[in-house]
Amino acid sequence: MKERVIGIDAGGTMTKAALFDLAGVERACARRPNQMLFPKPGHTERDPDRMWRMACEAVREVLEVSGTDPADVAAVSVAGYGSGLYVIDGAGDPVRPGIVSTDGRTAEMLASWKASGLYDAAGAKVQQRLFAGHSAALIPWLDRNEPELFGRSAQVAFCKDFLRGRLTGDYSTDPSDGGIAGLIDVERAAWSEEFFEMTGIRHWLSRMPEIRPSDEIVGGVTAAAAALTGLRAGTPVVRGAVDVSAAAMASGVVDPDHLSVVAGTFSINSTLHATPRLSILPFIQSPYPLGGFIATEGAATSASNLEWFIRNVLDGEAARAEREGKSIYAVCNELIEGSLGKSNDILFFPFLFGGPGGAPAGLLGLTASHTLGDVLRAIFEGIVYAHKQDIDRLLTGPDAARPSVLRLAGGASRSPLWAQMFADALGLPVELPAGSELGAQGVAILAATAIGAHSDLRGAVAAMTRTARRFEPRPERQADHARKYARYTATADALSAAWREDDRLVA
To answer: What is the pLDDT of residues 392-401, one digit of tens each?
Structure first.
């Protein structure tokens, strides 16, 4: 049997390709940046053709740097960000730019839905709360504001499905993407006709893709795609999954005992359930490829805030890290370690990319005696507390999970100090999965299962994932974090009330 599989993951900031063996060990990885387009305030788009070119380059690089014969690649699969929207014609070409899930153009429409009661009624049909970048909000908005789009289109596609369609010609989707799009009855894994009817987009049902299993072979790499990627024509391609589910699988999340946390561009916090959560509708939820359902709370309040600080404030430290052959996370850890032995009441609110009720980001409690290490510590802690707010919501209600361990992925997992903060603040052991590209690894697991390398998907997860390190919560630190978290939440609420979107100060 061929011993290599490739996973492609098109995320919010990067498109990546990674090569794995059938034990889940990453053998090579290549990354390409995604270019964001901002045609109007609040609009966040992407050139689908450019994203495809970046994916092709990444796959070709992985084959070249690893010295892998394309004939030895057993299968390929694809992950991508959830929601947003791609609309294609009959040839599979985009009829407008792709929309990224951070898009905010539908905010005014959703506000009117809330006022009329449609927001709650529609959300109940798809078992989740609606947000501005939701496919469920974007299609109604486009139907009203770009009415010619329907006639020019043949099908709606989601991020991973657009890329897989370019590989094979198959533009179907899987239940995980359909769920996070907010367009299916999650329990039935079928398009919600009631949702389409009540939101005035019933005619768009004719443009929705077929929903099929995540771990199914959809076809082979076409000759045209082979020429661009370096893959062998005919290589099996597996449908794939949305990145939230793919990363959870690669983290070894297989039952309700596991809390999946991705601290990256977004705060993504997920638990597994035997049935959809209905007592308190989550931010998003969808069928999980291993069976059951995955419920998620999240916001743009995670490690992207640290990346902004590094890029705009720590350019000198980043240069030092490069000179010394260190990661910037190692340098941050060194600076923070000098702050840990003393009291630090600085609060950081990680709302650079959007906060509750329009609250802005900020540092509170600075004095002249504070150091850069103190500020970095506050940033690390503030991001942990933002995750805790999401997790507290996720774990509330009679049908909430009761996890006993947290599996941490994303940028925060690169810092042992940060992982320990998560353990101390949340009171749960934190385990770091081995590997760096978990979205790509998750769909590589799907690919290995589809070709028969493992007997079933659960067995593939067991065989292809492992824990690299574990951090136990320290009781002596939990009380300090509880006190500081209480101040954080009270102050965040006050900020939210003081900085309403329609009440900005103008100098």
So the answer is: 999 999 999 9
